[in-house]
Design goal:
By secondary structure, this protein is α+β, with helices and mostly antiparallel strands. The chain has three helices and seven strands. Strands 1, 2, 3, 4, 5, 6 and 7 form a seven-stranded mixed beta sheet that branches. A hairpin with a 2-residue loop joins strand 3 and strand 4. The radius of gyration is 14 Å and the shape is globular.
């Protein structure tokens, strides 16, 4: 088992922050196995389109992601970890949202992805 780097996770975090659907799709393997947990729901998906559906629900068109406040990545064995904190503004105010993601790579793309989300935490 070859060690992996955190580059793929960092690229995913940046694509999420930029709401760059095309880049997210490039990073996801066609057979991606996805699970996510937000404060109110558990998400499951088996394809890139379903992952995008979850991301669009989490950050809809009214949510302006102003900045990445923090991003860190690491790898261990055959997994990568990336944590990222986003500054998000919408009609209700200014928020921080933090997500921790664990992923595995196949053919240079994300084939296994687990995300835990803090939810929108008000900072105003």
């Amino acid at each position: 088992m070859a060690p992996v780097t955190g580059e793929l996770g960092t690229a995913f975090a940046r694509a999420v922050a930029e709401k760059d659907d095309a880049r997210v799709l490039e990073l996801l393997h066609p057979e991606v196995d996805f699970r996510g947990m937000t404060p109110g729901r558990v998400w499951e998906a088996t394809g890139p389109g379903d992952v995008l559906t979850a991301l669009h629900f989490w950050f809809d068109e009214h949510d302006l992601i102003e900045d990445i406040d923090a991003i860190e990545s690491d790898s261990f064995a055959d997994r990568q970890r990336v944590g990222y904190r986003l500054r998000v503004r919408n009609n209700d105010g200014l928020y921080l949202v933090e997500q921790q993601a664990y992923l595995s790579e196949r053919d240079g793309r994300i084939s296994w992805l687990r995300i835990m989300c803090s939810g929108f935490r008000s900072i105003e």
